[in-house]
Amino acid sequence: MSMDIDIALTVNGERIAERVEARKSLVDFVRDDLGLTGSHVGCEHGVCGACTMRVDGVIVRGCLMLAAQCDGAVVETIEGLSDSGELADLQAAFEQRNALQCGFCTPGMLTAAQDLLNRGSVPSRDEIREHISGNFCRCTGYHAIVDAVESVAKARHGAKP
Amino acid sequence: MKPAPFAYRKVRSLDEAVALLGETPDARLLAGGQSLMATLNMRLSAPSLLIDINGLSGLDGIAHKNGQGSGFVEIGALARHVQAERSATIAKLAPLIARAMPLVGHPAIRNRGTLGGSIAFADPAAELPACLLALDGEVDAQGPKGKRTIKAGDYFKGLYETALGPQEILTAIRLPAADSNTRIGFAELARRHGDYAIVGLAASARADGKGLKDVRLAYFGVGNTPLRAEKSEAALAHGDVDGAVAALDLDPHDDIQATGAVKKHLAGVLLRRVAAQLMEQRP
User: Among A1, A68, A134, whose Cβ lies nearest the Cβ of B109?
Assistant: First the structure.
């Protein structure tokens, strides 16, 4: 039985066909084969959230999915989300409020936060903390991250900053 | 770490998966992968073949089925946690699952993880196996000899060990549908939201006048399987919360999170919280 699998998928709007090792995770595939190194590899067992990306419109752990499973999928990494401008206000708020220091968790944190913000209502601070509970940050103590996400949620709903 | 090499096959039917499990005894089924992939990455498991069942149709439904009493909620093995979290059927007819679901992992995990996978993996610290036991549910399995149904009480055999045979595949979970007399309780203690619990408790009961009957308490994180606390159930049915706490006959092992003695103390704390939930609910 084959240890290599042919896949065709869309990554950040670009159609891609590759042959991948069956055991290769999605995050290793986008980093090593596609050179998209914005998705980070932290714990490799689903705990830290640094590899959070979107597959078919929902956020997933890039380390807990195989590239082989992504045949036909639409994958969006932080590079795609950033280039499209979808996250521009969130990125600006992270910078403005010092919601990052080393930046290792930031791509996953932005992707997870955007998932919450896309639900449409203004989340409470507790809801923000709960939603990013699967994303580790070892620098900020989270407070500034919650501030940034909250301010963007309010701004997107027309409140004054 | 990276997993050891394995082959990968996406199957188109349950029969194909059953046959492959027969041909390759060390093969593992890949559903949501949220536990399996982690164990592969840590090389705690090194199967030669992964059988991906995600393409199978008809296994991801959540439906109310007629049957004894108010019927059943049937959850297909491939229904993802996020589906259950958002399901009106689950909210109305399986409120214990609805209560537990936000505590299962994190949003990105719940987008992939499946209820069937959680029950099949049977992590003793996971929420859903305890819910299945508390609700006296059952699972459907399909194997080389056809289909069979296994009651929750007969299903959990040991640490990550279930009544499923080596070639059997869990296809659905069935839970008694809640009615106006159904009471449920759920509480867990974890260091971080979404982590496996240090100790957790899933409970169901039926209102009986001002009291309770058919109390079922299923602890998780305190043994090799989810565990009933039957002596405490009897005490709680008599409205005796102190007696129920005193009757707890759990003997949890020390683990990385807490000593057995701490876990046993916390089990009593949770019992008081859950007893209050069971007794307070009104339709």
Answer: A134
Residue A36 lies in a domain: yes
Residues 6+ apart with CB under 8 A from A58: A115, B82, B111
Q: Mark whether A74 and A109 lie in a shared domain.
A: no
Looking at CATH, the fold of the domain delimited by B62-176 is given as 3.30.465
The nearest CA of chain A is from the CA of B108 a distance in Å of: 4
CATH number for the region B182-280 comes to: 3.30.390.50
Would the pLDDT of B148 be above 70?
Answer: yes
Average pLDDT, chain A: 96
Same domain, A99 and A122: yes
Q: What pLDDT does A159 receive?
A: 67
Cα distance between residue B250 and residue B264, in whole Å: 7
In the prediction, which pLDDT does B281 show?
62
pTM of structure: 0.95
Look up tokens 């909250």; give the residue.
Answer: A150
What domain range includes position A131? Answer: 85-156
> Nearest chain A Cα to B109, which residue?
A60
Beta strands in B152-255 (DSSP E): 156-158, 161-162, 169-176, 182-189, 199-208, 211-220, 227-228
Q: Examine the pLDDT at A160 and tell me if it is beyond 70.
A: no
Q: Does domain B7-52 have CATH number 3.30.43.10?
A: yes
* Contact (CB<8Å) A46/B194: no
Q: Mark whether A93 and A116 lie in a shared domain.
A: yes
